[in-house]
Amino acid sequence: MATAFNPKTDIPDLTGKVIFITGGTAGLGAEATYQLAVHNPARIYISGRNAKRAAVVIKKVEELGSKSTVHFIELDQGKVSSVKAATERFVAQESQLDILIANGGIMAVPAGLSSDGYEVQFGVNHMGHAMLVKHLLPLLQRTAEKPGSDVRIIFLTSLGFQFARKGIAYDTLKTTQDAAVLGLWIRYGQSKLANIWYARELAKRYPSITSISVHPGVTKTDLVGQLSLANRLFVYATNIGSMVEPHEGAYNMCWAVGVDKAKLQNGHMYEPVGKATKRLDAKPFNDDEAAEKLWTWTERELGAS
């Protein structure tokens, strides 16, 4: 369980590192910011839509006595144009990026569409991060070319990917997909499966960068708190005795930031804390062709944007 990890002693010195955390203004992203900041990275960038929340995070980092600077970048993950603008602002002021944590996301929300017309959970959880990666890849690659570099992309996924037993429904991704029983969970699972497959393809296509996905554990954050009563009860009932506090939910991504690179298998998924999952061994989840199809489809959708 998460308690086997101690962020004070198990995260190494991060001096000189530049870190970008999506959804870093609250929840697990904020917790990861606190835990990483005290290990001396040069700069941490946190993205989100709420500047006031970001200010609270930045103030707390200062109160922790960290010498790292934390910067806020406004970014709406459900809007490709916002993601592109955010990456342009970031690249204009940074010459390196060592760690990208694709943390921000939504869970089991009512049926809807993102600003760009995708099923909303897929639009935010996958397309937003895919756009981010697309525009930050040149900088990530340049950083990876430096002697002694160790560049990582860490996607937050979820065991909820197992709801997507039929894979990704490409034919209806530009609809609300509001048809099936447990539909909001199937839609969520589809977006989390996409995170896993996208990390796998990145590892294959850009081997100089370590790209993995991590499950944080079922965590008591606003993602659960904002669910309907019926869905909160569903989460609680199916995770009796296994839910963790927000600071523990950040452990697995912080482990992924600091663990010896030799202990990571590029493209794999890890459960808390640092355990390579075996849940992807069977189809439809262990499917290299499906992962490649997702990459091709995503590249086509993003096009020249």
From TrEMBL:
<protein>
    <submittedName>
        <fullName>Dehydrogenase with different specificitie</fullName>
    </submittedName>
</protein>
<dbReference type="Pfam" id="PF00106">
    <property type="entry name" value="adh_short"/>
</dbReference>
<comment type="similarity">
    <text>Belongs to the short-chain dehydrogenases/reductases (SDR) family.</text>
</comment>
<dbReference type="InterPro" id="IPR036291">
    <property type="entry name" value="NAD(P)-bd_dom_sf"/>
</dbReference>
<dbReference type="GO" id="GO:0016491">
    <property type="term" value="F:oxidoreductase activity"/>
</dbReference>
<keyword id="KW-0560">Oxidoreductase</keyword>
<dbReference type="InterPro" id="IPR002347">
    <property type="entry name" value="SDR_fam"/>
</dbReference>
